[in-house]
Every structure is written in C-alpha cells, then in structure tokens.
Amino acid sequence: MAKITKVPGLSILYSFVVTEFFKGLSSGFIESLNYTDGSMKIENGPAVRISNTNGVFLVGYDDAPFMAADDQSPSITAFSGFPMCNPRNSADPLCPLSNRPTGGPGILVQPSFLTECDLGRAPDPLVMAPFLPGDLITFSGLRRGDEVLAFSIVAQNVQITTGDDIVYIRMELALLGIFSPSPAAEIAGSRFIGFSSNSRVSVTLYALDVDSCTGETRERIVAGVGLRGRRNFQSKFKYRNEILFGYTREYRAVAEIDGVPVTRKTKNGILAGSYVQPVNVWVQTETGIPGLFFNGVPFEFRQMQFLTRGVEADENGNIWGAIGSLPAVAEVARRNISPGDGPLGAPVNGELHCAVHSV
Q: Which of 158, 155, 152, 131 is nearest to 140 (CA)?
C-alpha cells in the first residue's frame, strides 16, 4: 500500500507498506506438526512454516529473509504475548513439550479460574512453549506454492500467563494520527493497543528517535498506561490520545511493576518485558469543512523527522538524509564514513562531517 502527496506538477510517494496482501490474515486449527522441517499443517488448509532466519522459533529457515518473523520482539506468540515455537525434536530444551500449562491444546481460561495460581501459568516462564495440534492460530505471511511462510502467528485459544516479575508483551496496533495546524483540519487521534502475560503490570510507551547524522537511537517517553479495569481477563492495555509532534517509525513498550521496569533475558535470547512496535497505520489529517477539496488541508510532514531529516546508517555505513522533494523538508545530510573517521558520528578533524545528500 502506497501513500502519495501532491505538490504542483508532481506526485510524491512518501510511505509504502510491503506485504503480499495488505493486512491479510488467515486462521485455522493446527492438525499436525513436522519437527524435521518446522511446518504445521492446518486443518483443511495449507502448511504453515515460520520464516525465521535465526532459527529461534524452529529449525532455521532462511529462504525468505525479507519476510522473517521478529525474534527480538516476538511475532510468534500465544494470545498473551508469551513466545511460542515448533520443536526441533521431541526433546528440544528450547521448546519443551512440558512447557504447556495443561500439557495439551490450550483454551482461554474461564474468568472464574483466573487467579494468581491460574491454570494458564507457564511451568518455566523463561523458555518458549510449543504449538500443539488443536491450537487455533491466526497467521500472516507469504504464500509460496502450497505453504505459507509466516512472519506473524498468534495462537488465539492459548492464554499462557506469567507471574512474579516476568512479563511478555504483545502489541496489536500502533496507529498514528498526524496533527495539522490548519484550522480546516480535523484532529486525528492516535492509538496503541497491546496485551500482557502478567496482570500486575503497567506499561510505559517510548518513541524511538533516530539522530539523522549519527544514527544514534534515543528513547523519549510518550505515556504511562495501566491495564484496563474490571473484567480485563485479556490483560489488555490501550493508549488513546492526540500526539501532536515528534512522530517516529518505531515505538517501544516497556513493562513495569510498582514503577520499576521488569525486563529480563530469556533462555531463547528474547528480552522479556519489552516490545518494539513499528507504526502499522498512519492517518493523515482530513478536512473538517464539507465541500473543501482535500488540498485545502495539505498532508503534514514537518514532525516526521525520518522523512524530513533522514534515518540511520544502512548496511554500508551510509546515513540517508531527507527526501528532498517533499514539502517543508529541511536540507539534511548523511554522514560520510571512511576508515579513518572513527566511530559512527564521531568528529572528523574536530568537526562532525556530514555531506549534503537527499534521496
């Protein structure tokens, strides 16, 4: 899906989402699992294989590196955000069959049983739990032949929880409404929605700002969010407000208990209690005056610094600057890197060396 803005005599592409089917989701019950090749057969449906180049969720599969599952902020999870996997064998220590709370296909625990000792508690909260036949999964991925290479899977009927100070987070939505100062514009709201494996937590949201010259990432607090109130058996949290400035491509959710961040490295190398979420929906302002042509409220880019000032280094060490043809884009540079320059962003001959470069 592409987003385009117009200036006199020119249409400018400023944002696009790459996926085979935009927001395409499929679902079905797992019929069987193949430990050898890491695939899962869906009842009356295709085989689903997790696309995971690092081999965290299953035996390694690297035929689709640009459509890979996220193994740092896990995109293969139970409903609660607890990371899940397809065992490499029947005795896989990083995906043990014993780590399912009931030892069988999971269903959401009924509210009357949701206690501090509820039946959904993971036996070992620091290691993944395996998928099993009977799990209902929702998945997104790349269709290839008679199988789907999945980069996102949520087991909708598996609610694995955690206690003490161990938390997993799953983000469902990061929607940013772009503010416009035009008096003819509607005010577009922003929403963040997620879930937690631990009912004791609150969540702090951070914007991840990227320095356009050095590539350094800095965290900027956006809001603190508590879990929803009564009958919140999903441990769901939601932040809804008008964000007026400082839009970034990614936001980070960090779990806290009693005001203290609770992040911890697991046996699978995942940082539990933290989740980095790219923005998956951008909403530009629309006119609030009936009959006014859309150009009466132009798209607003001045607070989208990754477009107007550039982003971090690419794989060759180049830092890319502004899209120079966009309206209201300041002239920004990319850092020239050479072997004698020292660390990324370090001064060269006493000065920070940036060369003017626009995409």
A: 152
Q: For the chain, how many helices (H) and strands (E)?
A: 1, 23
Task: Give the pLDDT of residue 203.
Answer: 96
Between the two ends of the chain, the Cα-to-Cα distance in Å is 20
- What is the C-alpha to C-alpha distance for residues 353 and 337, in angstroms, rounded to an integer? 9
Supply the pLDDT for residue 229: 63
Q: Select 167-283's CATH number: 1.20.120, 3.40.50, 2.60.40, 3.30.2220.
A: 2.60.40
Query: Which residue ranges make up each domain of the chain?
Result: 26-155, 167-283
With beta carbons less than 8 A apart as the criterion, state whether 124 and 166 touch. Answer: no
Nearest to 94 by CA among 144, 45, 140, 60: 60
Of 348 and 205, the structure prediction assigns the larger pLDDT to 205
Alpha helices in the chain (DSSP H): 305-308
Q: What is the pTM of this model?
A: 0.81
Which of 225, 256, 255 has the alpha carbon at shortest distance from 240?
A: 225
Burial class (CB in 10 A: 0-12, 13-18, 19+), 298: middle
**Strands 84-85 vs 76-78: parallel, antiparallel or unpaired:** unpaired
Read off the pLDDT of residues 34-54 as tens digits, 9 standing for 90 and up. 998 889 999 999 999 999 888
